[in-house]
Design brief:
mainly alpha; Butyryl-CoA Dehydrogenase, subunit A, domain 3; 51% helix; rod-shaped
Length: 171
């Protein structure tokens, strides 16, 4: 049983899958899992577009410091997508494990962890690693700030003693 369809292995070894008829007929945890996965996909795609805009090889943003901040925000969005992906996958795995070891659930209805959960964990791990790399490898460069120029006017030093030299002799 997944968040998009339910599959059953028949006694003949054939697998038969059926898409859920109505979203309203689903339990609340499956509805929440669907919503989190969809939001994770949207956040991941937005993070990808932000990363493209902030990449060093693009000219969308001229300022290097601003590019670094854009890449850090992209990394944070990838990490957010990873967490949003990890929640429903881990929740589903927990449900499968609890029901598998429950003596109340009949043997025919016990589920096992399938490839979809492993793919979900792998996707979350890749999003987390990629987002962390973007956050750590693109620190904004500190701008060198010089103190403001002094506004005190200095005048040239004038000699008090009269000079016997003619200034025109030295030109």
């Amino acid at each position: 049983e997944g968040i998009w369809m339910s599959c059953v292995v028949q006694s003949t070894g054939q697998m038969q899958c059926k898409v859920y008829d109505s979203m309203l007929a689903l339990p609340a945890d499956l509805q929440a899992a669907r919503a989190l996965v969809v939001v994770a996909i949207i956040v991941g795609v937005l993070a990808l577009f932000v990363a493209i805009v902030g990449a060093k090889c693009t000219n969308c943003i001229e300022d290097e410091s601003a590019k670094a901040r854009v890449m850090i925000s992209s990394g944070a969005a990838f990490i957010t997508a990873a967490v949003l992906q990890l929640i429903p996958v881990s929740w589903s795995a927990n449900t499968v494990i609890l029901e598998f070891y429950s003596p109340v659930v009949p043997e025919a209805q016990k589920m096992e962890i399938g490839a979809s959960l492993y793919l979900g964990w792998a996707a979350a791990a890749l999003l987390l690693v990629g987002g962390s790399i973007l956050c750590c490898s693109c620190p904004p460069k500190d701008e060198i700030r010089y103190p403001p120029q002094s506004r005190i006017a200095y005048s040239a030093h004038h000699s008090v003693a009269p000079s016997t030299y003619n200034k025109r002799d030295y030109v």
